[in-house]
């Protein structure tokens, strides 16, 4: 049984109609699929989808659930940013959207001098500008702040699923900014896993880096998946597709990583809560 709980459509920064994703999900053998476009961020100039579009988002998904009833389980979610004091899964517009579950993520770490939230996913020169102006050119400070925000999110406003835990490594492929084997880095990850374990959130193993060729590894890396599993944190595999052809991209590798970590199950939403199913075989 193949599932995907995290993907985007044209409602946020994905390409294609929700309908195309359902067709592709069926073709790729997916039996449960969730829409989780980026939730509106209540801040001017950040370019998220407007709150007013959530109604159309909901009715589109409801229409597809009816049309494809009995063929595939379809769920309504949003990838909700955690921005301290501004937004979390408990924000009124998120609660009002009546989601099946929430996917929580930190994409912004503090703000640039002009007040804009700084996305660590942005290419240079914005990436370096953030490290320089917000963190005094100290990448370690930036990374520790990122994990601190993830801990704050899961402790204070826990989502059901934590998205791409070590996404902060996106621009660190050649370990240009920091050494991922450093004690301080492992400590930051461990403290965050401890918080996720305490909050009872599900941790996704996100394959986006694999099929885009960003990384040879998942978000989070295999060594983190293993530590998470050892702590008893529930895991699931998601593609974070922004194009329908990527819905199961990288899944074979991700399932192998889970297997190597000793995991025998993934946790999937069943319409009421999350249940364990055996790790799918995948060739
Ligand atoms: Zn994300
Ligand atoms: Zn996403």
UniProtKB/TrEMBL annotation:
SUPFAM superfamilies: PHP domain-like. The lineage of its organism: Bacteria, Pseudomonadati, Bacteroidota, Saprospiria, Saprospirales. The keyword Flavoprotein does not apply. InterPro entries: Histidinol_P_phosphatase_HisJ (IPR010140), PHP_dom (IPR004013), Pol/histidinol_Pase-like (IPR016195). GO terms for biological process: L-histidine biosynthetic process. One of its GO terms (molecular function) is histidinol-phosphatase activity. It comes from the Bacteria. GO terms for cellular component: cytoplasm. Pathway: Amino-acid biosynthesis; L-histidine biosynthesis; L-histidine from 5-phospho-alpha-D-ribose 1-diphosphate: step 8/9. It comes from Neolewinella litorea. Pfam families: PHP (PF02811). Belongs to the PHP hydrolase family. HisK subfamily. This is Histidinol-phosphatase. Residues 5-207 form the PHP domain. It catalyses: L-histidinol phosphate + H2O = L-histidinol + phosphate. Keywords: Amino-acid biosynthesis, Histidine biosynthesis, Hydrolase. PANTHER family: HISTIDINOL PHOSPHATASE-RELATED, HISTIDINOL-PHOSPHATASE. Its EC number is 3.1.3.15.
């Amino acid at each position: 049984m193949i599932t995907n709980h995290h993907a985007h459509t044209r409602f946020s920064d994905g390409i294609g109609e929700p309908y195309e994703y359902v067709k592709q999900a069926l073709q790729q053998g997916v039996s449960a699929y969730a829409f989780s476009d980026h939730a509106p961020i209540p801040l001017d100039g950040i370019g998220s989808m407007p709150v007013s579009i959530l109604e159309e988002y909901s009715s589109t998904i409801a229409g597809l659930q009816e049309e494809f009833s009995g063929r595939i389980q379809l769920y309504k979610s949003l990838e909700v940013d955690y921005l301290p004091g501004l937004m979390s899964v408990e924000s009124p517009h998120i609660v009002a959207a009546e989601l099946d579950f929430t996917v929580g993520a930190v994409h912004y770490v503090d703000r640039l001098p002009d007040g804009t939230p700084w996305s660590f996913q942005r290419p240079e020169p914005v990436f370096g500008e953030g490290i320089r102006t917000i963190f005094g050119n100290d990448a370690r400070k930036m990374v520790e702040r990122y994990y601190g925000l993830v801990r704050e999110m899961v402790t204070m406003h826990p989502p059901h699923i934590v998205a791409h835990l070590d996404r902060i490594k996106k621009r660190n492929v050649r370990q240009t900014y920091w050494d991922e084997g450093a004690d301080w880095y492992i400590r930051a990850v461990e403290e965050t896993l401890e918080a996720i374990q305490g909050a009872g959130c599900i941790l996704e193993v996100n394959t986006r880096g694999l099929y885009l060729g960003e990384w040879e590894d998942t978000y989070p890396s295999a060594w983190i998946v293993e530590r998470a599993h050892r702590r008893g944190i529930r895991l699931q595999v998601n593609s974070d597709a922004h194009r329908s052809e990527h819905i199961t991209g990288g899944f074979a590798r991700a399932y192998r990583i889970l297997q190597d970590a000793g995991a025998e199950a993934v946790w999937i939403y069943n319409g009421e809560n999350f249940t364990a199913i055996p790790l799918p075989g995948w060739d």
